[in-house]
Amino acid sequence: MNLYDANHCPVNQFADSECISLEHGDGAGLTRQLIHQQIRSKFANPILDRLGDAASLPTVTGPLAMTTDSFVVSPLFFPGGDIGSLAITGTLNDLAVAGAQPLWVSLALIIEEGLPLREFERVMESIRQVTQQAGIMIVAGDTKVVPRGVTDKLFITTTALGTPLAGLGSDPRSIQPGDRILVTGSIAQHGMAIMAARDSLGIQADIRSDCGLLLPAVQALHAAQIPIRAMRDATRGGVAAVLHEWAAQAGVTLTIDHGQVPLNDATRGMCELLGLDPLMVANEGTMVVVVPDGWEAAALAALRDVPISRKATVIGQAHPRDIAPVTVIRSLGRDIPLDEPAGAGLPRIC
Amino acid sequence: MNLYDANHCPVNQFADSECISLEHGDGAGLTRQLIHQQIRSKFANPILDRLGDAASLPTVTGPLAMTTDSFVVSPLFFPGGDIGSLAITGTLNDLAVAGAQPLWVSLALIIEEGLPLREFERVMESIRQVTQQAGIMIVAGDTKVVPRGVTDKLFITTTALGTPLAGLGSDPRSIQPGDRILVTGSIAQHGMAIMAARDSLGIQADIRSDCGLLLPAVQALHAAQIPIRAMRDATRGGVAAVLHEWAAQAGVTLTIDHGQVPLNDATRGMCELLGLDPLMVANEGTMVVVVPDGWEAAALAALRDVPISRKATVIGQAHPRDIAPVTVIRSLGRDIPLDEPAGAGLPRIC
Description:
Shape of chain A: globular
Mean pLDDT of chain A: 91
Largest interface: A-B, 72 and 73 residues
Distance between the termini of chain A: 22 Å
CATH architecture of the largest domain in chain A: Alpha-Beta Complex
Oligomer: homodimer
Largest sheet of chain A: 7 strands, mixed
Structural class of chain A: alpha+beta
Number of strands of chain A: 14
Helix content of chain A: 25-40%
Strand order of the largest sheet of chain A: 9-11-8-12-10-13-14
Radius of gyration of chain A: 21 Å
């Protein structure tokens, strides 16, 4: 049995009273009990505690940034994280790479009848830890329970609000030939950790998801006053998807040196085993950054001061548009076009 | 065959190209095509059009209200609405009864592989119509496609931001003996419309959901400067759930006159058939309002000027706490305690 697979509630393992039931979602007594014991007690704050139909947020002077994401990852638990930590970090990372400091998050849960309460608690606890680490408040929520078989265990939708950090607006269209491309850590770990955690593959690999908050890395770049052309967490489609999107927007060719891309041995091995290009595999705490030529050393120094981006590396450069939008210098020293990721390689990785 | 049941994609009815596939959710070409053709084109606005990692919202002076809801209704289409109109109205109604004018909404979609594109389009079009009617913008979104069987067709999570209307703060704890209880329309229609639309019941009933925007009714009360003790849309658990929550918060007994509660004949008939108390059945465009004694005529006049609340009626009054928190005057003229709704009567009604 795989340790990271969250099982349904077999009769012999959990009593009904130890599982989420439809009554937990009907708005009456058990719903209030679940919300009070598992959610309000963990996420208590002055805004959530009012428990009205809508959260009353304090006045913010200046513009706001808003982002939303649904998480349907399977299995719920994997080395390096779970659907809870992923739902918060994923959404906060979208704000971070947009140059915004997160303030508030809403949390909407769709739970399958029969989910063991112990697993639900574990997910809520991991959400609590990440929100505490990020210094943000959960201010609104919703809980729906659907009958067995209507959904798979637990889906989480998070929506975050934040305030833009002054001077951190980036625009991929501003990327120019000569600009340097950086990546903040070892790639492909999230996607491969999820694959390894799936029972059906029977793979034993020591790979942890990179699931983590990118805000400290963004703040470090901000504090060092690094001009940023483009910044993006390399989630679905990996580093390749980010580079393709930027190359199309800026009308340049982005060339990376395969040998410079940080990659753990275990991750490389598993990618080879499955015939996957690590450049196309999802990350959840690793971003790609483009800075003007000459700024790469300062950017690296700033990033390497922060745990989440300690392995930051320069991996390439922008050039005038050549035959292909994205190319990779592989072992023979020649530029090879890098395909755009296509097809449903790995469903339910986030 | 029930007209309102959204079918999966049987091989003979829709070609694969006419259905949502996993590739529509993998972040690459087909995802961009789906988002462009079905979402961006329908909801185009200056904020959404920027398509960054996070939406940049203009500066708002003053506090904000925020609310989130997941919608898992089955079937997707029912008389009077569909999951799309429901997801927008439900979330905006939460803002409205909190006394807030909606500004922006985010839209997160979890789609089952195989959902006919035609049905997806129909839901998006109905979202477009409601957002237009409400005068709000969709500013952020997310699209996930999960393999067949992992979810049931389509779940939608909406998160809304709005600004409080000055002077419209209500607090159920302020309810006092003598206060009047109003309802804004015929009750129990949403729950019964969903039940009738479920194939398995084989019921033919001419019942339409009351699914509709309550903001105009709230604005009418605001314009008429009606002091409001409490205001709530009577969703899960119906009018009974709202009254029970308020009675507990205010420490009073809320008594309603059964004969005064607006109820359509078809809805009454179906509730009798199923042995359900219409006071416990969900609504999606009907709210309960408590005003101080003496203000009920002005409140009714304001509400009846607006289509959504044209059938507004005084249904009861607050009293000092008696034996039961909520009582109903039934046909014999005596107060009978009204139970708090409990148990999963109707899963997946919203």
